[in-house]
Amino acid sequence: MSAEALSAGVALWRQVADGIEQAIADGRYLPGGKLPGETEIAENYGVNRHTVRRALAALAERGLVRAERGSGTFVRSRRIAYPLRTRTRFSEIINAGGREPRGQLIAAEREPASGALAGQLDLAIGAPLFRIEALRSADGVPISRGTTWLSAVRFPDAPKVFAAKRSMTKVLAHYGISDYRRLSTRITASVVDAADAARLDLAAGRPVLVVESIDVAADGTPLLTSRARFAAERVEFVIEPD
Amino acid sequence: MSAEALSAGVALWRQVADGIEQAIADGRYLPGGKLPGETEIAENYGVNRHTVRRALAALAERGLVRAERGSGTFVRSRRIAYPLRTRTRFSEIINAGGREPRGQLIAAEREPASGALAGQLDLAIGAPLFRIEALRSADGVPISRGTTWLSAVRFPDAPKVFAAKRSMTKVLAHYGISDYRRLSTRITASVVDAADAARLDLAAGRPVLVVESIDVAADGTPLLTSRARFAAERVEFVIEPD
DNA sequence: AATAATTTGTCCGTATGTATA
DNA sequence: GTATACATACGGACAAATTAT
């Protein structure tokens, strides 16, 4: 209905895309909600439907909307802002966003430290480790799949404790470690594998953000190292000076 | 030739994977180099070829090796470590890694600020901006495709200056800004689009790391905002306390 | 230029141990 | 305890792509 104003000097599709983006930002279209049909948008702006399609494709490319054939185009839910700082704890971050965090133990195994892991944890090669596989979610929506390694000597019942407390911070607290910090964080991306796709409820081929990190105690002793895969379409890492 | 020692209690394929990973870490297999054939590895470890394939699949999953049918399995070149700090400059980072950085202007256009951009740059909606499309590479290997927006009023000939100096830092210096810092950095991932795939020399479906950032002057005035897409298989963001 | 050899990818099957219901 | 499912490990055969002859 409402005709939108178009200015000169900018590609039409870009103006349409900007207009829709603004509408999403203003809350005129709500997360998860459906946009008007392509023809209707085209009428509103007084442009051809193909111009609208070009605009929607650009927005879809950036992950703002998601088109479903036969159904409509929907506004993607806002990505969860996930700050990466030296004090990074999943539960606190999700709580801060007003969501309900949950950690779920998938599997735990005892295994000897490989060369790489031994180096990161400052242990001898072959030292007994626990490898804990977990799934983390916010309000029931899966966010990340993580693999955590920690000493089986220093944390004798880590899997059991994690299963009960559902949080790695609480596991460390259980062993008397009240504070710890992130020593290093490395970020890459790859395509989700079949197992993670199932757990994270992602379609095949979707990208995941891979975060490898080492957490150390206040005195610098390595505590645990982990490799987490985040559903890229649901999170956004934010880096701001500490 | 050399028979490898196997221990009990750990899945065979995992032991083989650890062994190969260690060999890569030790430099016994060099980046870009070829691993022995699957059958040869199987003989070395005294396991079935399928067990080796399971191990190689795990390493390929983590991006350490890359298999080419008919040719062999190769050690992936180490990802470029790309530190993200408040002082983040592409050329300095690449130089620090002993590589030759290069910035190439692809296109530049004048366009009015959309609502989102105006907010980020603290300008009025519709204020004239330059949108600069650039390709950045290290030793001739494309690393990232970036779109940068900056005020066309404050930086009247930014595209020309960038084309000549090939560095955004030098563009700012040309306008008397000797120092600036990153105000915010947001990281996501998505699948490469066709245009970026061609420029970055990436196969379709490969993931890219998307970095949206805002740079400000020493006094906090926003200078430029950008959205860069990095070939995920060639870089690794590193976050360490400033 | 055509063929053979090599190497990874896929599919079949068999057997065993280990959780889980 | 029994049955079922799953991961692991091995063996063989062939397809598909690449490289060497």
Automatic annotation (TrEMBL), chains A, B:
Q: Where is the HTH gntR-type domain?
A: 10-78
The entry lists its GO molecular-function terms as: DNA binding; DNA-binding transcription factor activity
Q: Which GO terms describe its biological process?
A: negative regulation of DNA-templated transcription
Q: Cross-referenced Gene3D superfamilies, in alphabetical order? A: Chorismate lyase-like, Winged helix-like DNA-binding domain superfamily/Winged helix DNA-binding domain
Q: Which UniProt keywords apply?
A: DNA-binding, Transcription, Transcription regulation
Q: What SUPFAM superfamilies is this protein classified in?
A: Chorismate lyase-like, Winged helix' DNA-binding domain
Q: Which PANTHER family does this chain map to?
A: MANNOSYL-D-GLYCERATE TRANSPORT/METABOLISM SYSTEM REPRESSOR MNGR-RELATED (PTHR44846), MANNOSYL-D-GLYCERATE TRANSPORT_METABOLISM SYSTEM REPRESSOR MNGR-RELATED (PTHR44846:SF1)
Name of the protein: GntR family transcriptional regulator
- Organism of provenance: Rhodopseudomonas pentothenatexigens
